[in-house]
Amino acid sequence: MNKPLIIITGASSGIGAATAQRFSAAGHPLLLIARRLDRLEALALPDCLCRAVDIRDRAALVAAVAEAEAVYGPADALVNNAGVMLLGQMHEQDPEQWERMFDINVKGLLNGVHALIGGMVERRHGTLINVSSVAGRKTFPNHVAYVGSKFAVHGLSENLREELAPHNVRVVTIAPGAVETELLGHTTDEGIKRDYEAWKANDMGGVVLSAEDVAGAIVWAYQQPQQVCIREIVLAATAQQP
Ligand code: NDP
């Protein structure tokens, strides 16, 4: 039997790219979303539509979903993974940075929900997988706005899960600890970046999660029977203390 379409945002690197590879290996057609189209296409996955969409652009996201569903049929899962982490002290950070985090991590994620939810409710089938963070459950130094955006992801995901339960649609929250990806690279404060790298090297002996570790958890949660909802997965390197 043909496997249903899976949509992944932020698939051009890190967790999203690893998740795309896993779902593809499991036989699913894919719609991959990010701004760097060349990086999506470089994955060279079969039955895969790649679209350069900024998830802040709701109309473009809705259009890409419609285009993919016209080719591969209805989407059965959305991995709402695209996000940015711009660490800083609030009294020093450019407000543009916290606006950008809320626009992408929270409003962009809701754009993804919006693009898929109507069809899933109508079909009484589907899974929304929202990538939050351990920083969606507890605080960390220099993380004020990022923590705020990820607490929002946890809160809205749990409320959405309750709302969609009667419609047989699942909502899964994935909360990883530190993962080796490009995420830290967008923080502009060099001192904070150095401290973060030192925390990984010294406190964790340089052993953090890989993107593949997190992708494995995402695909496992999806592959449970539809009547089983893995509400939340919190995973971190064994050596990660906070
Ligand atoms: P990466 O920086 O490697 O990946 C982020 C992805 O998001 C990229 O594909 C990027 O693509 C995409 N993205 C960013 N902004 C937009 C946008 N406006 N529109 C569309 N796509 C966008 O980091 P990770 O893989 O680590 O991050 C994935 C998720 O995991 C994030 O939500 C992050 O908060 C979360 N997370 C990461 C942890 C970590 O330690 N790495 C820990 C806990 C959670 P492009 O730039 O091409 O648009």
UniProtKB/TrEMBL annotation:
EC number per UniProt: 1.-.-.-
Gene3D superfamilies, per database record: NAD(P)-binding Rossmann-like Domain
Chain segments annotated as transmembrane: none
Organism for this UniProt entry: Pseudomonas soli
SUPFAM superfamilies in the cross-refs: NAD(P)-binding Rossmann-fold domains
Record PANTHER family: DEHYDROGENASE/REDUCTASE SDR FAMILY MEMBER 11 (PTHR43115), DEHYDROGENASE_REDUCTASE SDR FAMILY MEMBER 11 (PTHR43115:SF4)
PROSITE patterns: ADH_SHORT
Name of the protein: NADP-dependent 3-hydroxy acid dehydrogenase YdfG
The organism's taxonomic lineage, starting at the top: Bacteria, Pseudomonadati, Pseudomonadota, Gammaproteobacteria, Pseudomonadales
The entry's keywords: Oxidoreductase
Protein family membership: Belongs to the short-chain dehydrogenases/reductases (SDR) family.
Source organism superkingdom: Bacteria
Matching Pfam families: adh_short
GO MF terms, alphabetically ordered: oxidoreductase activity, acting on the CH-OH group of donors, NAD or NADP as acceptor
InterPro entries, per the entry: NAD(P)-bd_dom_sf, Sc_DH/Rdtase_CS, SDR_fam
